[in-house]
Amino acid sequence: MQRVFKVYLFLWPIHFSAVNAMDIGPRTVFGKPKVIERQTKEPFREKSEERQFAWRLAADLWNQHYAASEKSLAIPQWQAFYDSAEIKRLFRFLYNDLSDRNLNDMNLEKMISAEEWNTEAVGRVASWPDWRLENLLRSLYVGFNIDERRVRGLAGVSKVLTNGKGFTSLMFHLKNCRNGYRCSEVNFASSSIWVKAAWRRIDGESTFAHFPTNQRTLMSLNQSDTSNWQDVLEFTEIPTPDKIFTVQTASGSRFALVGMHIMSKVLKDWLWVTLWWSNEPDSDFGADRPQSLQEKSVLTNYKLCSVSTFERLPHGRVAKSLELASDEAHSSSLGASWCSNPYIEQGEHNAKTNCIGCHQHAGTKVKQSEILENLETLGLLRNREDFPSDYVWSLGGPAGGLLDDIVGEL
Question: Which domain holds residue 272?
Answer without folding.
Answer: 4-407
